[in-house]
Write a structure and sequence with these properties.
Helices cover 5% and strands 41% of the residues. It has 724 residues and is mostly beta strands. The strands form 17 sheets. Strands 5-9-10-2-1-12-15-14 form an eight-stranded mixed beta sheet, with no helix packed on it. A four-stranded mixed beta sheet has the order 11-17-16-13. A four-stranded mixed beta sheet has the order 19-26-25-22, with no helix packed on it.
C-alpha cells in the first residue's frame, strides 16, 4: 500500500491453553494530514480465527472495514497533529469479540518535503505526535528473543534500501540488552523477562537511514514500551499485628487496623486487597475493604483469657480464587478494667487485744483479686465502715501482700468497753466498672482483755489559776488518782517529776499542791503565762500513772515602767531645737502597764518639754538653746495604775554626722621655751641610740617623746612603740 507505514504487531499467545480468535491490540499507521475517501488505511492481521465465521466491524462512521480486514476511509478525514484513534472489532464463533485500536499519526516528513519542494532548503516542522506505547507482558518466559512489533517507515517506498536503528533505555541504556531491532526489517525484539516492579516502562527512539548515503530518510520516532503488570507479588503486612482493647468492650468496638500493601501495579485488581479472618470469628470481625478489626461480642474477659491470637488473611485480586495471599497472626491483648472486687478469704474474724495498748498491729486480713496485679484495679484499700466511732482503730494496706493491716491507734479501756464489732470493707484504688458487683465487707469482733493497771489521775491534765508572788504555802489545788479496777485512791502516793522552777510542793498522801517558792510570771519558766509540772501517782504494787498540772500564772502590778540607761544623742541643727524619743518598758501585762504617763519636774520646765508619742514613748524637746555637752534630765514615768517613779534620762548635745557626735582634735599652742624643753630630751635619746653598745631604753622614756625607740645589737634593732 502506497504512502502507508504499517506498525505490524505480531504478538504471540502467552497462554497456550487459550484457543480463541486473536488480532493485534493496537496498530500505529502514518498517514497524510488529509486522508481522501477510499484511502486504504491498513489491513487487520489475525490468527487462530475461523475464517468462515470471522467478521469485522468498525464503529467510527469515517471508516469502513472489508470482509478481508482491509480498513478504508469512507470519507475525507483530516488528521490533527495530536493524531486520531478508532477501533476495529473482530469476532468468530470460537470466542468473544476482540478489539484493535488503530492510531493514525500525521506523517510530518512527507509534509516537510512537500513544503520545501523547489525551495532548496528544509524548514523546521512541528514534532510529530508521540504514538501510544507498545505493551509487553511482565515476566514473559519466552522463548527468547521474542518478536514484539515491526516498525517501518514509508520512506522505504521512495528510497528502496533503508536500515533502522534504536537507542534508549533497555537497549544501550540501563537496563542494557533487553531490546534489539532488526536493521533490515525494523522488527523489535525482547530478549529477557522484565520485572515491572523494577522497570515499569522504557523509552526508545527509532531512526531510519538510506543505505547508500547513510542519510536519514524520515524523522526520528520516539515511542514507549509499557510492561503490563502480572500478578506476581503477594500482598504484605505493613505493620506488626499487635492490638489492645478493653475487656468487656461493647460489640462493634474498634480494636485496630491491619495495613497491607502490594508491589503490583496501582489501580489494578492485582493490588486490590481483601481482608479476612481465619480464626477468632466468634469474637472479632474484620472489614474486608479497610482491614479494621472490631469486636463482635461484649463478653471478652481478661481474667478468662488475656490474649487472643487471630489469623488474618490478605488476598489480592479482591479476594478472587486466583489471587495471591499472605497470612499473619494478630495478637489482641485485653486491657484490664476493675470488674472484680477484692474478696475475703474468710467470712469473719475474732481478735483479742489488751487494754491500754496503742499503735499495735492486731490483725492481718488477706484478700484475693482477679484483676491485673499491681495495678489500681488490684491494689486493695480497706475502710472501717462501722464500729470505729471513737477512732480507736485504723487500717492500712500492705503494699507487698495487699493484705489489710488492722492497728489499735488509741488505747482501749476494759473498764469502759469490753467488746467491739468492727465492719471492714475491702475496696480498690480504682472504682468498679463493667460489673454489677459491689464492694464486700466482713465483721471483726474485738475482745478487750483486762490488765492490772497502775493508778489513773482523775484527768490527764488539770488547770489551776495562781497569782504571781503569792505567799509560800498557799494552797493551789488537789490532783488525785484512783485504781482503775477499784476506783479507790487508798494507798496511792503522789510525787512531782518535773517542776522547772521548784515552785510547787506536793503532799504525797493527799495530792495537794502548795506554793514552795515565789512564782514570778515574768520568769523564763513561764511561757505565755503558763507554768507546767508533771506528777506521778504510785500504788502499793509500785505501778504508776502520770498526769500534767497546768498552772495559769495571773499577773500583778509588780514592775514599774523603766527608761533606758544608755546615753541619748541630741544632734544640734542650726535654726532648730532638737529632741530625743524616750521609750519606756514595763514587764507587766496590759492593763497593768501601758499606756504610760510622762511628766517633767518643775525645775526642768524652763529647759525641756515632754509630749506623748504613743502608749510607751514620749518626745523630750528642748525649749531653748543649750551648750553642747552632757545633761541629765529628770522624768516621772508611771503606768495606768499610777505605779512608777522619777528617773533620769542622759542626753548628750553635740554636732553630729550620720547621727553620731563629732570628736574635735586638741589644739595646743607652744612657746619657744616649751619647744626647747621638748627638743633637749630628744637629742639625748638620739645620742643614746647611736652608742655602739647595746642599750635598752625604758618604754617610759620612749613614750615621753612619742618616738620609736630601739635596742641596738650590732647592726640590728628591736623597736618599741611608745605612744603618749
Amino acid at each position: 500500500m502506497a504512502n502507508v507505514v504499517i506498525f505490524d504487531i505480531c504478538l504471540m499467545l502467552i497462554l497456550s491453553c487459550v484457543e480463541s480468535c486473536f488480532i493485534p491490540t493496537s496498530l500505529l499507521v502514518l498517514v497524510p494530514q488529509t486522508i481522501p475517501a477510499g484511502y486504504e488505511i491498513t489491513k487487520v492481521e489475525f490468527s487462530g480465527c475461523d475464517t468462515k465465521s470471522l467478521h469485522f466491524t468498525v464503529r467510527d462512521p469515517s471508516f469502513t472495514v472489508m470482509s478481508n480486514g482491509l480498513v478504508v476511509a469512507a470519507r475525507p478525514v483530516t488528521v490533527a497533529t495530536t493524531g486520531r484513534t478508532f477501533s476495529v472489532w473482530a469476532q468468530d464463533n470460537t470466542g468473544p469479540e476482540s478489539e484493535m485500536e488503530v492510531h493514525l499519526v500525521h506523517n510530518t516528513m512527507q509534509e516537510r518535503e512537500r513544503e520545501n519542494t523547489g525551495k532548496g532548503l528544509l524548514k523546521r516542522s512541528k514534532r510529530r505526535w508521540s504514538p501510544p506505547p507498545i505493551n509487553i507482558l511482565e515476566n514473559d518466559k519466552g522463548p527468547f528473543p521474542r518478536q514484539i512489533e515491526t516498525i517501518v517507515s514509508n520512506s522505504a517506498v521512495k528510497y528502496k534500501h533503508v536500515y533502522y536503528n534504536i537507542s534508549g533505555s533497555g537497549y544501550n541504556e540501563e537496563p542494557v540488552g533487553v531490546f534489539s531491532m532488526d536493521p533490515n526489517t525494523g522488527m523489535l525484539f525482547v530478549h529477557k523477562p522484565v520485572d515491572r516492579e523494577e522497570f515499569a516502562s522504557f523509552t526508545l527512539k527509532t531512526r531510519v537511514f538510506d543505505r547508500t548515503t547513510n542519510m536519514e530518510t524520515d524523522l526520528p520516532l520516539e515511542f514507549g514500551i509499557v510492561v503490563d503488570d502480572m500478578n506476581d507479588n503477594k500482598p504484605e503486612f505493613q505493620n506488626t499485628l499487635q492490638f489492645t482493647v478493653f475487656e468487656q468492650s461493647k460489640t462493634g468496638t474498634v480494636v485496630g487496623k491491619v495495613n497491607a500493601t502490594d508491589r503490583d501495579q496501582e489501580g489494578t485488581q492485582h493490588v486490590k486487597i481483601r481482608y479476612s479472618l481465619l480464626s477468632g470469628l466468634g469474637l472479632f470481625s474484620i472489614n474486608p475493604q479497610t482491614g479494621v478489626i472490631s469486636t463482635v461480642t461484649n463478653t471478652l474477659d481478661r481474667e478468662v483469657q488475656d490474649k487472643h491470637m487471630v489469623t488474618v488473611q490478605i488476598k489480592d485480586m479482591d479476594g478472587a480464587p486466583n489471587g495471591l495471599l499472605s497470612t499473619g497472626t494478630a495478637t489482641i491483648s485485653l486491657t484490664d478494667i476493675n470488674d472484680n472486687p477484692p474478696t475475703f478469704t474468710k467470712t469473719s474474724y475474732k481478735v483479742n487485744v489488751r487494754e491500754n495498748e496503742a499503735e499495735k498491729l492486731v490483725l492481718k486480713i488477706p484478700v484475693e483479686d482477679k484483676d491485673l496485679i499491681n495495678t489500681p484495679n488490684w491494689i486493695s484499700k480497706f475502710v472501717i465502715t462501722k464500729g470505729n466511732e471513737n477512732g480507736n482503730f485504723r487500717i492500712e494496706s500492705d503494699p507487698k501482700t495487699n493484705e489489710g493491716l488492722l492497728y489499735i491507734s488509741k488505747p482501749l479501756n476494759y473498764e469502759v468497753i469490753k467488746n467491739i464489732r468492727l465492719e471492714i470493707t475491702a475496696q480498690n484504688e480504682a472504682e468498679l466498672s463493667g460489673t454489677i458487683a459491689q464492694w464486700l465487707h466482713i465483721p471483726v469482733d474485738v475482745t478487750v482483755d483486762d490488765v492490772d493497771e497502775g493508778p489513773e489521775f482523775t484527768a490527764p491534765t488539770v488547770h489551776f489559776y495562781v497569782k504571781e508572788n503569792v505567799p509560800n504555802g498557799t494552797l493551789i489545788g488537789r490532783y488525785t488518782a484512783v485504781d482503775p479496777e477499784t476506783k479507790s485512791s487508798d494507798g496511792i502516793k503522789y510525787y512531782k517529776t518535773i517542776d522547772p522552777g521548784s515552785w510547787i510542793n506536793v503532799d504525797r498522801n493527799t495530792g495537794e499542791l502548795r506554793v514552795a517558792n515565789t512564782i514570778d510570771r515574768e520568769s523564763k519558766f513561764v511561757q505565755d503565762g503558763i507554768y507546767n509540772i508533771t506528777m506521778k501517782a504510785v500504788d502499793a504494787s509500785s505501778r504508776t500513772g502520770t498526769g500534767t498540772v497546768i498552772i495559769q500564772v495571773e499577773d500583778i502590778n509588780d514592775h514599774v515602767p523603766v527608761l533606758p540607761t544608755h546615753e541619748m544623742i541630741l544632734c544640734v541643727k542650726e535654726g532648730e531645737l532638737g529632741s530625743v524619743l524616750v521609750v519606756a518598758e514595763d514587764l507587766d501585762q496590759i492593763p497593768l502597764s501601758s499606756p504610760f504617763s510622762f511628766n517633767l519636774p518643775e525645775d526642768q520646765n524652763d529647759k525641756w518639754s515632754v509630749t506623748r508619742f504613743n502608749d510607751t514613748a514620749a518626745t523630750l524637746q528642748l525649749v531653748k538653746s543649750l551648750y553642747t555637752g552632757k545633761y541629765e534630765v529628770s522624768l516621772d514615768v508611771r503606768d495606768t495604775q499610777g505605779f512608777g517613779k522619777i528617773q533620769t534620762v542622759k542626753v548628750k548635745i553635740c554636732q553630729c554626722s550620720d547621727g553620731d557626735c563629732l570628736i574635735k582634735p586638741f589644739s595646743v599652742s607652744l612657746g619657744a621655751l616649751a619647744l626647747l624643753a621638748m627638743l633637749l630630751p630628744l637629742a639625748l635619746l638620739l645620742l643614746l641610740c647611736e652608742s655602739p653598745t647595746a642599750i635598752l631604753l625604758p618604754a617610759e622614756l620612749c613614750r615621753l617623746c612619742s618616738l620609736n625607740c630601739a635596742l641596738y645589737i650590732g647592726n640590728r634593732a628591736m623597736l618599741y612603740d611608745g605612744i603618749i
